[in-house]
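Request from the bench team (R.T.):
"We need a structural guess for the complex before ordering more S-adenosylmethionine. Sequence and SMILES attached. Just send the tokens back."

Command: build protein-S-adenosylmethionine structure.
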Amino acid sequence: MNTKYKAVDLFCGAGGFSAGLTSAGIEVVRAFDNWPVAVDVYCRNIGNHAVCLDLLDIENAADKVGSHKPDFIVGGPPCQDFSTAGKRIEGDQANLTIAFANIIARCKPPFLLMENVPQARLSASYNKMRSILDENYEFYEVVLDASQCGVPQLRKRFFSFGWLDSAVDKNKFADWIGFSITGQRLTVKEYLAEEIDIEYYYRHARNYSRRAIFSVHEPSPTIRGINRPVPPNYKRNHLDSANPDSVRPLTSWERSRIQTFPTKWDWGAKKSDRNVDIEQLIGNAVPVKLAEFVGRGILNAVAA
Ligand SMILES: C[S@@+](CC[C@H](N)C(=O)[O-])C[C@H]1O[C@@H](n2cnc3c(N)ncnc32)[C@H](O)[C@@H]1O
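Reply to R.T.: structure attached below.
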């Protein structure tokens, strides 16, 4: 496998995307985010190559990114505007997808890779991104369910892989994915084994029509950026797997592990701490094993 490909990670957060691509064999040489807490966690775990930068300042960002002459520009621009249940309004956050495209258009790396929620694929901002880049790039788009890619979590994510010339065999990438995804969805217990000592847990639902109590013998629902205790007045949903009196929410550490961060990952807090920033960073991340999965597939397709 070619380990010489260099990547720059935009909107790097705590580093889920970078960590997975690194495991796949891609060298991440620079990473940018404008949130100091995210950059701190990134640097603690991956390396001091993450720095704070506002990526809406496109000229400045393109200069900084371009100076590394990366083979890949990768990134997960913030997606709240299209992922909030019931709302499909594309506000300021969507501009960041366009900023991502404009930075790529200026730097023209051989490859690009974007991760986002599945709804992003149909958004005006992604459309705009494609219109900025279509002249020079070809694309392969895919929605993957993380639970079929080595992550014990039902988390569907959209990946858009682009390349400048015809060196990529997109059928090879598609075939690799088809061959590598598992028919069986990975459960929390299968992945965490002795690391988790509960049978059921509470995960705050977006609304009362959804269940909130899950078994560890199924994939976890999507790990989001908030983690709340069981409300005292919680009314049991008929689909809940257990009685609310007997369950607790997952700890930050368990959530981090379900996002497939390594056991030794340093969030800058004690294992028992509850910290809203950390919960947000965990929920924001590309699961490490999902990023690794996609990275492996891409390397397979770009290898001569
Ligand atoms: C979805 S998260 C990325 C998660 C990351 N890919 C991972 O795997 O951990 C989006 C990130 O964009 C950052 N962000 C938002 N606005 C930004 C801006 N103007 N410039 C740089 N980063 C920004 C946020 O701080 C957040 O960490």
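Two things stood out. Residues 11-17, 33-35, 38, 54-56, 76, 78, 96, 284-286 surround S-adenosylmethionine (CB under 6 Å). Residues 185 and 197 are 21 Å apart (CA to CA).
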